[in-house]
Amino acid sequence: MASKRKIATCSLAGCFGCHMSLLDIDERLLDLLELAEFDRSPINDIKEIKGMVDIGLVEGGLCNAETVRVLHHFRDHCRVLVSVGECALTGGIPSMRNHHSLKACLEESYIRGVGVENAHIPDDPELPLLLDKVYPLHEVVTVDYHVPGCPPSADALWHVLSALVAGRDPHLPPALLKYD
Amino acid sequence: MWREEAPPALDAVHEILGSHERDPGELLQVLIKVQHCYHYVPDGAVALIAEHLRVTRAHVRGVTGFYSFLSDHYLGEYVVYCSDNITDRMQGSTGLATYLCNRLNVKLGDTRADGRVSVHYTSCTGLCDQGPAALVNGLAVTRLTRLRMDLIAELINKRAPLGTWPSELFLVEDNFRRSDVMFRRSFEPGAALQAAMRRGGDDTLRDIQHEEAVDPSSGHAWRRGADETLKELYRSDLRGRGGAGFKAAIKWETCRDISAPERYVVCNADEGEPGTFKDRVLLTTYTDMVFEGMTVCGYVVGATRGILYIRQEYWYLKSHLEEVIARRRDANLLGRNILGTGFAFDIDIHWGAGAYIAGMETALIESIEGRRAKPRKRWPLPVVAGLNRRPTVVNNVETFAAAAMIALKGGAWFAGHGTAHSAGTKLFCVSGDCERPGIYEYPFGVSVREVLRDCGGLDAQAVQVSGPSGVTITRIEFDRNLAFEDLSTVGTFMIFGPQRDLFDVVCNFTHFFRHESCGLCTPCRVGTSLLANLVDKVAAGKGSPMDIAEVERISQLLKTTAHCGLGQTAPNHLIDSLLKFRAEWDKRMVTTDFVPAFDLDAALHEARQLTGRDDALAHL
Question: What pTM did the predictor assign?
Fold first, then answer.
């Protein structure tokens, strides 16, 4: 048997709900680990991808410079890049701020907000700088596959992962794309 | 930006409502009058209209929001809509619109601070043969130049009433360049109707007039005349002129044969396909022929009510159309006792309010019924359950004109022209790069090259046949024939000379569809937007082969999954362009790698300003 596939995952402007859903594949995780191993992922706390991985799963959209850098890192190091979940596909809930200017958002939180003391917009260089808007992944890099859902169900993620690990094109059946 | 200081007096709204029945179907016509009176639909009017017509305020606002020529905010004493078809652009419209804005000191789309004027773009106004064109308070002005824009700005600045403006500004010419058998002679009002009623034999008209049946349609002579006229229509093999080419006789017969308490004849004069202006000319010069065709249809199918649904771009024809209808009533060609036979049929005019989708027959019916012009599900067909869910014949203006001529001269005469499957002649609306733009009548089957030769446009690099939703024809295809067998068309014929950048055409068409998508179905609502974004990205020099692949993917998706013809045909020009003018796209590909449509580092600019940061991590 050939060497195991490598998988990397990350969460950008997301809520980790997609990762929770990934863990919900339950005992199938053991089947997956027969065929694949995890590189960088919040699951194992590895911080950087070393070399190339076969499959990159990215949860969440792009809201700041840091998320853009991580996404570029993933695009450069993943043979197949998958955007996972509503925020990655469309910007999702974080993109609701797109209806307002960044200035209005930050002033609402850090200047005029209830209970704010020492009001000023945070400017520590350690903090990633916010983008003017929240963007979906495919507007910044090419994305090979999209898995919709908020979060995508464990079955949907298993369907996609098992296909990709086996080298097949994943096609979600309608039942896994139906949300009502 | 102009702000309303106090709500306006609503006396005029009361007056308008007083002249309309308390029927929700009147909504659009009421809103049009209110818009013309106030130059917007004031909040106070919304409540009054909702109450009078027994609809919700949300419905009134929903309809107001749907149509381009209705507005929920004040547009100014003078409202200028500059036509934004590609043919207008080729005649310099964008520069002229900017010039006018500068002269008036107003930003495009905004109402000037003193509430005097606003300038906007609108989709094709059907004046492509004499553009650039615009509408000023609803009236068409043609052949715009800087000189004319100077004059318009001056008249607006000194607040001259529209009635005192020089009439040459409003001159709309027919430009009927070539006539064939249909439009060679003038039409004698009543001739077709008499011929139809005489079809049962020489004396039928007299017999019909003498039948004393209470309901004339039960008389034998009456029925014979109608039956024979329908047979002539079958013999003529007339196909609908709106583009789809459905056989008129089948439509009429189906409508006639369905049992219903009432049925309707609707003439589709929405003519929204950019580059199309034949209905404008027909309704200007062959008005009687069109109305007579509708009346013959009423006679054949047993309808008593006809409706002309006409786009508001042709508002300048209002008094002319009303005069013709009044004259025909006086001559007993419309009304309760047509030609003394007891046959009752009358025609109302319903105005559109700026919506391309309203040309789609089920959307048009929705619009007549006073709602947003959204297409219905196509079963049942309008001919089974159309206007007010009654059997309805919806035909194009040109189809009714042809029907009148068939009633007059017989089906064999008509079928003797054109080709095997495309009987008769067709009007072509020739515009763009040629010496003689205008209306050309040819028998079906004429080649693209022949039209180009006659109009003086042989050096064309491409012709857009049947409008943005149609097909792009290249030089090597100029010998193809304009007929249902080969290039089926509504008649639009836009010519692009060798000097044109065909990618500009693509951009114009893509944005047209984005603007005109009615929003009913997701593939079209979202798809047309995505396509416009992608085309803009390529135009901005940020396109990559991945973007072209995405254009192709979305185009196919739209074609196969959109609810109605608008979405299904919206990507046609993109597919044609990628197939036939790929070089126009390729030369814009500056990178093989995907790049974002926006500048990532610039997306951090606002945050840098807010935090005062400029360190390495503050850049991308």
Answer: 0.93
